[in-house]
């Protein structure tokens, strides 16, 4: 087997490792495929079989050791949950005491809040459902 054949075999191996990457969505196969491409490059520039295997192993192990933990941390972080007043924005509330531009009371998330309307000329009557658009201090701003 001459050097040209060796790099072709490495590329076939890389393509072969790409198939389970697509089927299983396991990124480790992609990292091994990149290692195989590095072995093909080594063969293409005239490196011996031992050097090709060493380059394949070193690149594959380095990628798995560096990229995999970063990906795992990113995946474990998950979606950020809104808490505190951020969680109240966009919620619906019920008017307990007439609310206008100067104030009033609503029931929001099981608690009684002071509130005022975003549009100072608009008033909301008792029992009406409203949406909270912002929280300023201890006052909900509603529409």
Automatic annotation (TrEMBL):
Give the NfeD-like C-terminal domain ranges: 86-142
Q: How does it sit in the membrane?
A: Multi-pass membrane protein
Superkingdom, taxonomy of origin: Bacteria
Which controlled-vocabulary keywords does the entry list? Membrane, Transmembrane, Transmembrane helix
Q: Mind telling me which residue stretches traverse the membrane in this protein?
A: 7-26, 38-67
Just give the chief location class: membrane
Gene Ontology CC: one annotated term: plasma membrane
Location(s), subcellular: Membrane
Matching Pfam families = NfeD
Q: Which PANTHER family match?
A: INNER MEMBRANE PROTEIN YBBJ
- The protein depicted here goes by the name NfeD family protein
